Amino acid sequence: MLSERATKLVMGLSKVISGKEYVIYSWDEVAKCFDEKDVSLDEVKNVFEEVRLNQCLNQKYKDDDEVCFALTDKALLIKNDYEVLEKAKVSKEKVIKTDEQGNSVIVIPKTENEIAPLTKKPKIIFNLGAFLWGILGGGLGGAIVCGIMLLVKLL
Q: Does the model's pTM come out above 0.70?
């Protein structure tokens, strides 16, 4: 689970990086994304490592000057969930609910673009012709199998 500082770093990086492409940043640029003043580079490196261990970043390489990494889907989901929670604080709507098993679920607030629920039940059409052809095919198949069995007994 991410700490508060690690979440700040993920949010800061996701604001700067648009998707899942690899980028090369100096440690100073990573510190700028951290949104804290007077933070040492060692602290930034430690928090960055925590984010990487929580599988929010894919790291290709790092050295004393720079790091090459990409955000994962998990980091982008954390960003989206955080934004939904921030919007919910403003609108005062309940967004965290529980399902039947008691697991907490984030519910996105309703919008005008929701898909209307299915109101019509599918029709069940009874086709008499198809029914009769099915009966005829079953009888014909049974007669063929019975004929084969009689031939086997005669031999």
A: no
